[in-house]
Amino acid sequence: MLNMVFLTNSWLTLFNQPGLCITMAMLLHYFLLAAFTWMCLESVHFYLALVKVINVYVPKYILKCCIAGWGIPAIVITVVLIINKDFYGNGSLSGSHPYSNFCWIQDNTVFYISIVAYFFLIFLMNTAMFITVLVQIHSVKTRTQKTSRFWKR
Questions:
Q1: pLDDT tens for residues 42-66?
Q2: Which GO terms describe its molecular function (predicted)?
Q3: pTM as predicted
Q4: Half-sphere exposure (CA, 13 Å, Cβ side) for 14?
Q5: Residues 28, 59: contact at Cβ < 8 Å?
């Protein structure tokens, strides 16, 4: 959906409908955040599968993942819309904007908080999960090598 909204965004701005532009910018923002959130959930799943292998049962795991994956971005979008729906709009309406005919976030502060900071948090969490998994795999490998040396003797 992120790709579809991105590809149709410039075409739909040609209709010069502010409501349509706000909707397209909001959808683009939502699906981008959803992609980041699902990437984070994949790293959590990776961690659970490779590090916490034994006795890991999360009741209604898929439902919780779906609520987080689709709900957290919806909360961010709702907060932005509640604060000011004019944060979304057409870049060509303001002369100082570097891009034109594209519906997106108009305020730099909102962009940096809701996109860049959000991505940075996801990136930090994914990096931490990846390092944890690598350490776990290395420790398992080391233990199995020690055990095999012991049995060879």
A1: 999 988 888 877 777 889 999 999 9
A2: G protein-coupled receptor activity
A3: 0.84
A4: 4
A5: no
